[in-house]
Structures are given as C-alpha cells and as structure tokens.
Design a protein that fits this description.
It is built from three helices and no strands. By secondary structure, it is an all-alpha fold. It has one domain: Up-down Bundle (Methane Monooxygenase Hydroxylase, Chain G, domain 1). The mean pLDDT is 94.
C-alpha cells in the first residue's frame, strides 16, 4: 500500500479512472454488439443507426484516451465495412 500522501492520492485517482475507463469500454462493446446483431438480422436501417451511435462512442473514447486513436479508427473501419456488406 502507498506510504506517502501523494502516493495515496494517486492510488485514489487511479481507482476512479479505472472505473470510468471501464464504463466507457463497456459502452463501446455493447454498441458494437448492437451493430453486429443488426447486420446478422440484415436490418439495413438499424445497422446504420447503430453504427452512428457506436462510431460516436468510439470517437469519444479515443478522445478521452481510453483507447488509442488508431485502435478507434480500426474499430470504426471494420464496423463500417461490415455494415456495407448489408447494403450490397
């Protein structure tokens, strides 16, 4: 356990950040899953609307530093490519 006052504060901050980051990552995962389910059902409109929500959440996570910028770009690209298979 932390012995110095500053180290104790850092430990508290790390706990708060971990919880916040976890909720953001979970939200991204759920929205991604919604897109994939809509594609499986061949629902074009639902897939596109869910893609917009997922894209926004992924961009937000990248902006906050929860996920890396390039990881976010890769996730969005793969989801977009998946949704485009329904359109074809």
């Amino acid at each position: 356990m932390a012995n110095h006052k500053s180290a104790e504060k850092r430990a508290r901050q790390n706990i708060k950040r971990r919880i916040r980051n976890k909720s953001v990552k979970t939200r991204v995962k759920h929205l991604t899953k919604d897109v994939r389910l809509a594609v499986d059902e061949s629902s074009k409109e639902a897939a596109q609307s869910n893609l917009a929500k997922a894209q926004s959440a992924i961009d937000n996570a990248a902006q906050k530093g929860v996920v890396h910028k390039k990881t976010a770009a890769r996730k969005i690209s793969r989801l977009s490519k998946l949704v485009n298979t329904v359109n074809a």
